[in-house]
Amino acid sequence: MSKVERVRCEMADVYDKEVVGGLYVYYNGKYEGEGGAYSLLMDKLDFRSCSVKIGITDCYLTNSNIWGKNRKYALWIASSSQQILNCQFVGGSDYGAIFVRNESDYDVELLKISNCYFDGSYEDIDTYAGIYGEKLRSCVITNNTFWRQKDSGIILVDAKANVISNNTFEDNGIKNLKQGNTNVSGGIYDIKFTGKMDSNIISNNTYASYDNFYIKPKAIDVSSVSAWSNNVFSYNIIFNNGHYDTAPFNGFTSLGSNTLNTNGCFGSWLPNHDGTSN
Hints:
Blueprint: E1 2-5, E2 8-10, E3 23-25, E4 40-43, E5 46-48, E6 52-54, E7 59-62, E8 65-68, E9 75-77, E10 82-85, E11 88-91, E12 98-100, E13 108-109, E14 112-114, E15 117-119, E16 131-134, E17 136-137, E18 140-142, E19 145-147, E20 154-160, E21 163-165, E22 168-170, E23 189-198, E24 201-203, E25 206-207, E26 218-229, E27 232-234, E28 237-239, E29 249-250, E30 259-261, E31 264-266
Parallel strand pairs: 1-4, 2-5, 3-6, 4-7, 5-8, 6-9, 7-10, 8-11, 9-12, 10-14, 11-15, 12-16, 13-17, 14-18, 15-19, 16-20, 18-21, 19-22, 20-23, 21-24, 22-25, 23-26, 24-27, 25-28, 26-29, 27-30, 28-31
């Protein structure tokens, strides 16, 4: 296994946000399918106004700070079998702090994103979502904190057989609202699913976002899902105190083969969710 360790990189804001400007890990100068190279350990990187793009398999990114200020993303994962552990991510105005998409339209499988902090507290950094992922399969997103992302904490498109568990969501979707805003197109959500959704587990997460100028967030949104089956939503805890919408699980009107049970809503007026109502 090759190793990149203790690298500091900072790029001036004048460069176009299309420029990666940090570390681009690829195969033979060109990305083709899943590539033919693999296994790189990236440890203790400190990147400011820079990005990391991974286009080979079986890499590790650990103990690093990746700030994507004025970049499209902080980290682009374009290939399967990656482990992202104990990192802090800031910024990524177009595609989120972590952007997951395969350039040849393959599924992206076997990712583990754990113990990371997605920090959107900086007023001058446009953070979009903490994680924006397309066609994730058999991935694990666990023990992370998503704080004050401009849009959602997590947005997944065509997700299948993933586990999202033991994460904390706070104040997502509201950072850039102003006093005159009384409605937001598409709503405000901590986790949002679109496209097809099959056999995912969303469990043991904590939601503690707050309303801003009377716009109340929702914890989980599936209203834009075109088809869904065999998904499980369980043991999620919403700390409301009057801030969350009265239906914090949005789009759960016809469960079918999906399961919604033992989700607790604690606060002023939200009922517990047992799968029988919104």
